[in-house]
Every structure is written in C-alpha cells, then in structure tokens.
Amino acid sequence: RADLALYAAKNKGRDNLAIFEHSLDQQARERRSLEADLGEALALDQLRLHFQPIIELETGQATGYEALLRWYHPERGVLGPGEFLSIAEETGLIMPIGDWVIRTALAETVDWAGDFRVAINLSTTQVADPRIVATLSQALRETDFPAHRVELEITEHVLMDQSDANRDTLLKMREMGLRIALDDFGTGFSSLAYLRRFPFDRIKIDRTFVRDLTSDIGSQAIVSTITRLAEAMDMETTAEGVEDRRQLDLLRKLGVKEAQGFLISKPLLAEKISATTIKAEEVAEAPVEKAVIDY
Ligand code: C2E
Ligand code: MG
Ligand code: MG
Ligand code: MG
C-alpha cells in the first residue's frame, strides 16, 4: 500500500511538473507572439493615446493632460503599457513607438483651447538615446506647439546612471524650454538624492501615498513633507491616483497643487476629453470636508 501511495505521489508530481512546464512554454509563446504583433502595431495603426486630465485643486480647472499609451490589439483588446512596454524596451521598438507618442501627443492636442500642458512619459531607454532631443525639437516645430507647455515625465531611474549623459540630455531639453517632471516620486531607493541632481519643474507624488492617505498617518506626513520640500525647492506638485473625495480634500488641505486620478477622470481618447472638464469643476465646487488630521 505504501508503495502504491508513493507511486501515486510521484506520478502526481510529474503531472504537476508537466503542467508547470507547459504553462512556461505557453508564456514564452505568448510573449513571442506579442513581440511579433508589436513590431507591426505602428504600421497597422493600432496604437492610441489616452489623455488623463490633471486639475488644479484650488480651482478645479484642467491645467494639463497626461498622454498614456494604449495598444488596440485586434484579438486581445486594449492593452496598457504594463502589458507591452517591457517588450518594446527589449526589442528596441521603444524608440519608434516613443517618437510616435511624442508627435501624436502634440498633434492631437495643439488645437485644444486653453493654457494647458501636455505631459509625455519618457523611459530611461528613450532619454539615453541622444536622438531624443532632435525628435522633440522636430515635433515641436512640425506642430507649432509651444515648448513651455510640454512636460516630460521621467522616473529617477533616468538619473541612476553614474555617467552624466542622461542628465546632460535633460538639461538640453530644459534649454529648449521643455518642462521636466519627476514621476512616481517616493517609490525609489533614495528619491531625495535625485532632487538635488536635477532642477525638476514638478514632482509627481506616487499613487501609493495617495492610496493610503485617509487611513495612514505616515502617508499624510510623507505627502505633507514632499509638498513643503517641493515648495522650498520651487517645484510644483501633482498627486497621482486620486480615487475618492476624501483623498482629494485631504490633498488640497495638505497643500498639494494639482491632482489626477479616476475620481476626476479616467484616461480618455482625445475626442472624448471635452466632457471631463465639467466634472473637474464640480469637484472644485464641492465643499472641503474636514480632513482626518490637522497640520
Ligand atoms: P505613470 O506615468 O505613473 O502613469 C500613471 C498611471 O496610473 C497610468 O497607468 C494611469 O492610467 C494610472 N492611473 C491614473 N489614475 C489612476 C487612479 O485613480 N487609480 C489607479 N489605480 N491608477 C490610475 P498606465 O496608463 O497603465 O501607465 C503605466 C505606466 O506606463 C505609466 O505610469 C508610465 O510610466 C508608462 N507609460 C505610459 N504611457 C507611456 C508612453 O507613452 N511612453 C512611455 N515611455 N511610458 C509610458
Ligand atoms: Mg507619468
Ligand atoms: Mg506616475
Ligand atoms: Mg508609474
């Protein structure tokens, strides 16, 4: 009997291993097929930008729109950057795709009314390629978009490189009149150190702090501290990932200048954007609720 049980267990183990190997195989195949598809996505016009409004907390007015890349895959539906950006990085496709993002973000918004910024995310690979500067200046020229209304969002990874090449590229962008924001602030190893390495125009407070804001005193203290630090260093602040009213009210109370998140609007195709500013105004008109903690 014992032998039989052992035999059964061994067999089961082998089955599980087979299933595991099969799923790894499946994953590798999936990835290769996505890779091949991504190579054609630009030519087949499957990429789109969604824009997420950024509002000023004082007035509720939209002061900016962040361009967020989407892949309208014919079989898999709408894919977010988390599902294909790493493939784009590894295959080198990030450069042509990134260039497309820059040109399209400017072209699709240049005719919108108002004095807003357009925010464009740049990955480390893009900044590390010196051609990015020419791409940007050409896109500005072709669309007639004022450089001071374009904000490039980078993460601190861009500055981790010990050589100063990336920093020099950022400085060149700055000289062109472009604005530079530090995205996902507070999530890295030594976020504070990077504030000294480059004179950012804006700090984007990572959404993990916003998420815990109403339940965690620590997150409130961090947001409050980041806000004061930014003010002292003459940088603007935007909070990411605002999903409910209490977070919004607390952020305003803590002195954060701007916010974006699903509460205000999800990222939307350019043609659907106009409807969201109305909601943004409603957000500002509502009374400020009492915050959990008084600073
Ligand atoms: P990110 O720049 O920090 O962008 C904010 C992310 O938070 C977006 O995810 C946005 O859809 C999401 N978000 C906005 N409001 C809320 C909210 O209230 N709650 C929650 N849970 N999430 C919210 P998305 O679009 O999936 O983009 C992920 C990341 O991919 C971006 O993070 C950015 O780093 C990168 N990315 C997006 N578009 C581009 C692009 O065109 N080029 C490059 N290089 N990177 C991009
Ligand atoms: Mg961003
Ligand atoms: Mg972010
Ligand atoms: Mg992020």
Automatic annotation (TrEMBL):
Keywords: Coiled coil, Membrane, Transmembrane, Transmembrane helix. Residues 31-281 form the EAL domain. Residues 17-44 form a coiled coil. It comes from the Bacteria. The keyword Transmembrane helix applies. One of its GO terms (molecular function) is catalytic activity. The keyword Transmembrane helix applies. This is Diguanylate cyclase (GGDEF) domain-containing protein. It comes from Qipengyuania nanhaisediminis. The chain holds residues 485 to 779 of 795 of the full protein.
